[in-house]
Amino acid sequence: MYNKRQVGAFIILTMLLTIALCSTIFGQYTHHRGELYDRYLDRLLHKSVKDFNDDEILAEENQIYLECIGRWGKGLCLTVEVVGDTAFFSNGTYLEIIDFSDPASPVELGKLFLPTPPKDIAISGSYVYVADGYDGLQVIDISDPANPKNIAFLSNIGYAQDIAVSGNYAYIAIVNSGLEVIDISNPADPKWAANFRTGDDGAYGVDVLGNYAYVAADEDGLYVIDISDPTKPVKVGYSYFWKILDVIVSDHYAYVVDYDGGMRVVDVSDPTSPVRVGYFKADTLCSVVLSGNYAYIAAGYDGLIVLDMTDPAAPVEAGYFNTEGFTRDVAIFGSHVYVADSWEGLRAIEISNPTVPTEVGFFDTGDEVIGLSVSGNYLYLAQYNDGLRVINISDLNAPVEVGFYDTKNMQAINVAVSGNYAYVVDCKTYGLHVIDITNKTAPVEVGFFQSDKEPSKVDISGSYAYMVSEGGLYIIDISKPDLPNEIGFLNTNWTPYSIAVSGNYAYVADISKGLRTIDISDLAKPLEVGLCSVGEATDVAVSGAYSYVVGNGFHIIDISNPCLPNEVGSFNSGWPTWSVAVADNYIYLANWHTGLHLIDVSDPETPVRKALIDIGNKLFDVAASGNNVYVAAGNSGLYIFRNNLHTNVTPKTKIPKQYVLYQNYPNPFNAETTIVYEVPQISHVTVSIYSTNGRKVKTLVNEVKEAGRYYIKWNSRDEKGMKVGSGIYFLSIQANDYKYTIKMMVIE
Predict the structure, then answer these.
(1) Pair type for strands 94-99 and 107-113
(2) What is the pTM of this model?
(3) pLDDT tens for residues 305-362?
(4) Most confident of 445-454, 700-709, 710-719
(5) How would CATH label the architecture of 4-33+659-746?
(6) CA separation for the pair 63, 48 (Å, rounded)
C-alpha cells in the first residue's frame, strides 16, 4: 500500500508531466489569443466589474454596479529602452515616448495608457513589447511615435516581469513560474509557443544571445536554456546564485545582478558549464547595461555605478552619479545613458568620459498616489515623494492635470482640502503643509506646522485641523493659514492612524485596538470618552449615527451615544483594508489585495457587498462624492468609478466585439468553477471539457446562442455524474470558426 505522502507525490508528478504534454496534444488549440487592446480595456477597466455575493456570481444584468469612467496614471519611472535619440519608458501606467535629440530640452512625441505600470520594455522594428505584470504581454505599434497603438495583448501567462525579443519570438520572465516563449511572427496576433519552469520563485530577468536564453531566477540561480528550437526550450546549464533579478549577456560573459550582493560575472563560453569569474560587491542592484569596456549599473538608492570591465574577473568602480531617486533600470545609446529613477523621473547622463558621468537632460514623471481629496471640479493627489498634483475632473472621462506643487523634501501621504487651501501630511519632515490652491495652476506653500512624531492623517472642520501622529492628536488653529498654531493636544499610549470629525467628537482609528471617541468640545483639552474594540483599525468615516471602520475587515459602529460606541454590523473584507469612504447608503472600501468593495449599508446590521473590483494594485485611499468614487491606486495612479446603483442607472447590455473565452474562476478549484464566454453574433456554440489524453469528459454547451456574454458552471463531474480526479483539464470552445482552449486545474 502507498502512504498519503507517496500518493501526493505521485499526483504532483503526474500533473507536471501532463503540463509538459499539453502543447503536443492540444497544440492547435492552446495558444494564447492576441486581442485588440480596446477590447481588453473595455473588458478589464470599463464595465468589467463582477458582482459578488460571497462566492456566487449574480445575474448578468446586475453585474455592472461600478463602472470605471476615468483614469489618470502619471507615476514612477521603472523601466527604459532607447532607440537612437528616442527613449521609451514607463511613467506610472503610461508608456512615454520622448525625443532626446536635445537632451537639455526633451520633447514628448507620444504616450499610451496601459492597463498597469510596465515592468520591462523590448523594442523590435516598429513594435514595443511590454512585460506588463499580471496583464501579460502588450504589443504596441510605434510606426507613428505620435500615435502609439496597442494592437494586441496576451494574458493568462502569469506575472510578466522582464522581456527579451529575438527573431520571431519574445521571451518573458514570469514570476513564480519561469520562462514563457511567445511567437510574435505576427505582432498583431502573438501566440504562446512554449514554456520552461524554473524553481519555485520563477523568473525575474531574461536575456537572449544566439541560441541560448539566460534566465535570472531569483533565489533559484541562473538558468541557461537552449532555444535553438524555441518551441522546445531545454535547460543545458545552471549556476546557483542568491536573489538574482537581472542578467545581460555580451560576448561570452553573463553579467548577473544580485539584489543583495552585487554584480557577478559568469563565463558562458561553454553554455553547458557556466563558470563564475568576477564579482563586484554592492547593495540593491536592479539592472545593468554594457557598452565597450564599461558596465553601467542601476543601483537603487546608490544611483548609477560605472564599472571598468576591461578584466571581467576584476571589475573596478570607475565612476558614479547620484540620481537622488531609486534607480531601477538603465539603457544606453551612443554617449548617453538613460536612467529610470523612480519618482525622480528619467535622467539622460553623458558618458563620453565614463569616469565622470554628467547629467545633461531630465524628464519628470511622478510617484505613487497615496492620498486624495475631492473638492468641486478638482481632485488633489498626494504623490509620496513627488508632491501635490491638482487634477481637473470637470470631465470625469478625461481627468487633466492642471497644477503641481513639488515637495522635494517631504513625503506626502495624505491631503485634505478646505476652501482655498490644501493641507498635506508629511511623514518625512513630520508636519502639516498648508498650500494655497487659489490658483489651481500654481499652488504655493504658505504655512507649515511641525509635529514631534510621524503624522498619518488629517481632517478639517471649520477653522481647525485635526491631525493624528504616533502617540497623539494635534488640534491646530488654521484660521490664519500662514500661521497654523497648536491649541490642543491629546497624548496617547496607543497608535492613532486616521481621524474623522463630527460635531463635538473626533473618531480615531487606532491601529492596535479599534475606534476611540475623543470629546473636542474643549479644543484645548481633548478627552478620550469612548472605545469600541474591533481590532486593527486603519481608517474611519462618519455619517449620521454611524462610524465605519476598516483595517482587519469592515465594522459598522453605532455612535448615537459617542461615549458608548457599539458595533452593530461587520463584513470580512480582509487585511489590510486601508481606506473607507461613505456616500448615502453606500460604503467604498480600498483593500490592498482584493481591490475596491462596494457595500450597501442601508441595513447597518446586515451590510451586503454589491460589487468588488480587483484593480490589480495596492489601493491606498478612496473618496466619494455623490455617485462618483475616486481611488488612489499607488503607481497605477487614479481610478474614477461611477456607482450606477446610487443613481438607479441600468447599464446597457453591450454586444461583444469578438469571440472570447475567459479563464475560469476560481482556478484551481475543488467542487465548482464558473466559465464565462462571449459571442458577437448568432453562433452554434460548443463548450466541452477534455482530459489530458484527449478524452471528452463533459459537454457543457451544444446549442445556438444569440450575441452576448454567457455564464456557466462546472461541478467537476463527467457525463455520468461521477466526480473527476485531481489534475489538469482542458476547457475548449468552438463557435462558428472560432476555436480556443484553456487549462483548468481540479484539486481535492
Answers:
(1) antiparallel
(2) 0.78
(3) 999 999 999 999 999 999 989 999 999 999 999 999 999 999 999 999 999 999 999 9
(4) 445-454
(5) Sandwich (2.60)
(6) 8
Query: How buried is residue 47: exposed, middle or buried, by Cβ count under 10 Å (0-12/13-18/19+)?
Result: middle
Classified as helix, coil or strand, 28 is coil
The closest alpha carbon to 87, from 386, 367, 357, 347, belongs to 347
CB 308 within 8 A of CB 314: no
What residue type is 192 in one-letter code? Answer: W
Are the folds of 70-363 and 413-432+454-643 the same? Answer: yes
pLDDT digits (tens, 9 = 90+) for 723-742: 998 888 999 999 988 888 88
More confident residue, 681 or 423: 423
Nearest in space to 451 (alpha carbons), one of 477, 434, 479, 426:
426
Grid coordinates belonging to 239: 549556476
Distance from C-alpha of 253 to C-alpha of 250, rounded to nearest angstrom: 6
Q: Which residues contact 630 (CB under 8 A, 6 or more apart)?
A: 372, 374, 379, 622, 623, 624, 638, 639, 640, 641
Average pLDDT, the chain: 87
Q: How far apart are CA 58 and CA 63, in angstroms?
A: 7
pLDDT in tens, 254-303: 999 987 778 999 999 999 999 999 999 988 889 999 999 999 999 999 99
Sheet holding 472-477, edge to edge: 455-461, 464-469, 472-477, 485-491
The dotted CATH code for 70-363 is 2.130.10.10
- The domain locations on the chain are 4-33+659-746, 70-363, 413-432+454-643
Long-range contacts from 275-284, C-beta under 8 angstroms, 24+ separation: 275/239, 276/239, 277/253, 277/312, 277/313, 278/311, 278/312, 278/313, 278/314, 278/315, 279/315, 280/307, 280/315, 280/317, 284/259, 284/260
User: Greater confidence, 558 or 58?
Assistant: 558
Q: Residue 246 is which amino acid?
A: D
- The top-level CATH class assigned to 413-432+454-643 is mainly beta
| Amino acid occupying residue 46 | H
